[in-house]
Recover the amino acids of this structure.
């Protein structure tokens, strides 16, 4: 079986190892969601990853509701991403952009007071992180069927901008309780039209988005992230095995480069679930590289490769705190702990100041 340090072909991307950097929201863009120079340093420091999947990046004003998270819908945002991508490439790395629409998780403060959109009129639990502090979520407005083509075009526009910025590919964020996940799962999709009801209908939006993104970026430079088990920000499905293998088969037919699954277990440190993992069913349905994420370190990551259930592992908080994570794994060096209070702050502390290994 391959090791974490063996190369892997992810569609058109030749990754030198199987230690991928998972998408991590960090809040270092400016208030207009334009990437900053600090982000160049951060991503370049982590260029030793087999592949970097960027932090979730808003495809539109409607779809982004996180302070200081980056976007990719304006020319200014696109131009500001170019030196970030250039810094990663100069350091020998590869980077994909993750395309993000948050759906009902967007607070009206980001929308001039308008309601967020979702599959149905539902409300997320808890409170939104806004510039004015924590505020309760509000009920979403269901997207009309005649609005779906406009939404799909927003994904297309963002993909064109990502290509223009020089990214090696794009990943569609269809996980973690955000918009596409809200369509996939019956806990939040109560529609009775072509986008609701049966699993085939609930997968329809994901298929339409993946098709248009692949037509622009190339299927071999398009990936998708799913979270097929458990509750994600109040989004859950009563029968995930009827939905997610079907979604995986749909994406396999499109020919996407790889599929990433966030699958927390019952003891997950960033969300947990007692629902059975869907990865064995998805592995059988998806004819391409499968990447797993959530609470992996070196040994259990290698064990997932050894079992054949995964082809690569995406590491999140461990990569946040260890810019040279693949090298640390290779030499069995100690890992820096991450510092939660600086996850979403705006400065270099807890962002670009985690130390790399000293070399003689």
């Amino acid at each position: 079986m391959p090791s974490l340090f063996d190369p892997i072909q992810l569609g058109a991307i030749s990754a030198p190892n199987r230690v991928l950097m998972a998408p991590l929201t960090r809040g270092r863009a400016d208030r207009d969601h334009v990437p900053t120079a600090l982000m160049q340093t951060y991503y370049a420091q982590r260029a030793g990853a087999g592949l970097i999947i960027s932090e979730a990046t808003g495809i539109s004003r409607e779809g982004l509701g996180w302070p200081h998270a980056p976007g990719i819908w304006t020319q200014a945002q696109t131009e500001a991403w170019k030196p970030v991508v250039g810094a990663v490439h100069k350091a020998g790395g590869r980077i994909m952009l993750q395309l993000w629409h948050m759906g009902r998780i967007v607070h009206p403060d980001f929308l001039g007071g308008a309601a967020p959109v979702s599959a149905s009129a539902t409300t997320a639990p808890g409170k939104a992180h806004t510039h004015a502090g924590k505020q309760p979520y509000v009920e979403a407005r269901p997207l009309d069927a005649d609005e779906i083509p406009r939404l799909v075009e927003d994904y297309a526009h963002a993909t064109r901008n990502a290509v223009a910025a020089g990214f090696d590919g794009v990943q569609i964020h269809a996980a973690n309780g955000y918009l596409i996940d809200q369509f996939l799962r019956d806990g939040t999709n109560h529609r009775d039209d072509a986008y609701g009801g049966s699993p085939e209908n609930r997968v329809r939006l994901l298929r339409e988005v993946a098709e248009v993104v692949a037509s622009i970026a190339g299927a071999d430079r398009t990936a998708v992230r799913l979270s097929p088990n458990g509750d994600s920000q109040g989004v859950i499905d009563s029968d995930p095995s009827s939905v997610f293998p079907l979604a995986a088969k749909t994406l396999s037919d499109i020919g996407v480069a790889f599929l990433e699954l966030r699958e927390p277990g019952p003891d997950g440190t960033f969300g947990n679930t007692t629902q059975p993992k869907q990865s064995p069913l998805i592995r059988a349905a998806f004819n391409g590289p499968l990447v797993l994420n959530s609470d992996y370190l070196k040994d259990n990551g290698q064990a997932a490769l050894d079992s054949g259930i995964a082809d690569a592992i995406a590491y999140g908080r461990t990569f946040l705190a260890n810019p040279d994570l693949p090298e640390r794994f290779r030499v069995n060096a100690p890992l820096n702990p991450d510092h939660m209070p600086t996850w979403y702050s705006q400065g270099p502390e807890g962002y670009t100041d985690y130390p790399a290994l000293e070399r003689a």
Summary: The first strand starts at residue 8 and ends at 10. The first helix runs from residue 37 to 45. The chain has a mean pLDDT of 96. The CA atoms of residues 342 and 350 lie 5 Å apart.
